[in-house]
Each structure stands twice: as C-alpha cells, then as structure tokens.
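User: Can you model how coproporphyrinogen III sits in this protein?
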Amino acid sequence: MTELKNDRFLRALMRQPVDRTPVWMMRQAGRYLPEYRATRAKAGDFLSLCKNTPLACEVTLQPLERYPLDAAILFSDILTIPDALGLGLYFETGEGPKFRKVIRSEADVDALPKMNAESDLDYVMNAVSTIRRELNGRVPLIGFSGSPWTLATYMIEGGSSKTFSEAKKLMYGQPEVMHRLLDHLADSVIDYLNGQIKAGAQAVQIFDTWGGVLSSWAYDEFSLRYMKKIVDGLIRENEGRRVPVIVFTKNGGQWLESIADCGADAVGLDWTTDIGNARARVGDKVALQGNMDPAMLYAPKARIRQEVADILKRYGSGSGHIFNLGHGITPDVDPEHAGAFIEAVVELSGQYHQ
Ligand code: CP3
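Assistant: Here's the modeled complex, given as structure tokens:
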C-alpha cells in the first residue's frame, strides 16, 4: 500500500499531535459543486452515479481538487443497505429517497433476507478500492453507514418523514419486533463497514441522523445500543494502523457522555452544542468532530472566518478536534464560501497546536 502523505485527520481522531486542525465537510461531494452536477448528468441520476465506479470515484475526488481537505469520503448513500435488503430504493427529483416496499409488520421484518455486503453491495466495495487507488495516499478515505435506527426510519416510513409516526408506532407498539429489525440492521452494518474497511476505508463514520428525535431512554434502547453493537463488531486495525470510528447523532448533544462511552474514537457534534463545553464533558475519552452551522456558509466570507476562529478558540489548544460542519453542506451554498471556510481552518488553527 502507498504511504499516507497527509495523516492529520487520522492522528486527530486518535488525539495524537498535529500541526493544525484537520478539516473536511459532510456531503462535500454534492450538488453545490457545478462539476458534481455535470458528472451526475453524465451518469443519468444519483443512484446510477453511486453504482458507476469510475464516476463515483470522480465525484469523490472533485472537492479535493478545489480545496485543501484532509479527508475524502466515499461517494455513496446510507440507503444502499435497505436497497440490498430488497426494498427497491429510488429517488424522485426534488423529493428525496423513496422505497417501493416498506416494513410495517412482524412478517415484513421476518422476511428480510440476510445481507452479504461483498456480493450484494459489490459496487460500493469497488468504489472504495478504486478511490483508494486513485487517492494514491494523498489523504485518508472515510467509509460510512447509517445507524440501524436511522435506516429503520426510512425503511418503515418509506422515505423521509417529519413525524416518524410509523417508525414510532412499531417501536412503542411492538418493541420486540423493532428490536429484531434493529438487530438485523446492526449485523448488516457490521458486515458492510467491515467490507469497506477490507476494501481500503481508513476510518468509518456512523450517521445517526434521526437519533435526536427519540426520548432519552428510547435513544439508549433503540439507537445507541445498536451502534455499540456495531462498534464492537468492527475491524479496528488494518494495514498496521487503527481504523477509527466516528459516531454522529444529530441533535444528540444532551447524550454526549453516553455516546462517548460507546467505544467509538470520536463523536460528531452538530452546531447546537458548544464544542468547548463538549470537550470538558468528554475529557480525554474521544476526539470531537464539528461543528459549524452549515447555514453560516450563506454569510459573508469575513463572518465565516470569524465563526471558524470562535469555534477553534472554544475547543482550545491541543489535538482531538476535527473541524467539520455540524451537518451536510446544502446545495445552494456558493463553492467560494465553502473555500473560505476551509481556508480559515487551515490558516487559523496552527496556533492551537504548538
Ligand atoms: O459526504 C459525502 O460527500 C458522501 C456522500 C453522502 C451522500 N449521502 C450523498 C448524497 C453521504 C455520507 C450520505 C449519507 C446520507 N444519505 C444520510 C446521512 C447523512 C446526513 O445528512 O445526516 C442520509 C439521511 C441519507 C439519505 C438521503 N440521500 C437523503 C435524505 C437524500 C436526499 C437529500 C436531498 O438533499 O435531496 C439523499 C440523496 C443524496 N445523497 C445526495 C447526495 C449527494 C443528493 C442526490 C442528488 O445528487 O440529487
């Protein structure tokens, strides 16, 4: 394997010394970039883009051509697992993801097939190994998956939801059936992430986008418990190096201590939590990733730079911070403003790492 030329992202995840704070953006390969929209048009649609190895590789690398980012993230989607489980994922323009089949009953849960990531999601594994080869050691490659709870909400609702009524009906009405579904998904995620790690992913992130809609006890029982199971089942060392795990629960700030106890190396924060307080709460247990409000990218460049300076100051000196947005970058952001954000981290963070 080629030597990794820039490892500050992996080092910060392990809270090892770095020369400056590493930075990447959730959804960094996406619609805010005109070159992404052009490649997607070539592929036809989003899902075809995910399944086209050379083009998926191309869009993964696009943001790295523009900005001095410290990590690449596999171009794919969290909903590839439900698709591989036979639910028939499709995207209608402007409407987000949809499934042809939904999960509503005990019989639906029991009929789910066992997934084999390496054969059922071979296009993802091919993308990982191709991107890794094309990166040629420039920066590390992040693999990812959705959390079981977040995947379950899409599978039960049949797409995005505001209220999560159907998912909550199953959770409260037939908790044992919900647990069976989540356990099946946890096994699928373990297989999927281990496949990505074997194919070359050097760190992995679990996106628990909807954990924050649960009450505290339900978060522990229906989301965090299964992320713990996943973390316990992952390959933690590959190619002679630790493969760090990042857990990101959107709106999970109030549960930070218990998330930090789940065995992950790092916790992702959205912008509603003060990163200085968060650091005091987790101590040396985990690294922290985040957490500028992505909407700050609509502000003038000088204001973006000030916000970056403030977040760096609140985190303070020393390693263990990976700069990121608190959630994905939105499609209507000016790419130059994203550039100002990254440049500010590169220029202003060195002073915190003497
Ligand atoms: O960060 C990256 O650059 C990697 C790519 C990535 C995508 N989706 C590409 C994508 C990642 C990490 C995801 C994860 C994902 N997908 C999540 C969890 C992350 C989060 O934001 O909390 C979720 C909930 C999904 C499900 C999903 N996929 C939705 C709700 C949508 C529609 C969103 C929208 O804005 O329309 C998608 C589609 C999707 N996934 C796009 C991209 C670039 C846009 C599709 C397009 O090109 O039209």
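A couple of observations from the model: DSSP finds 16 helices and eleven strands in the chain. The pocket of coproporphyrinogen III is lined by residues 26-31, 40, 46, 73, 75, 77-79, 96-97, 144, 160, 207, 209, 250, 327-328 (CB under 6 Å).
User: Helpful, thanks.
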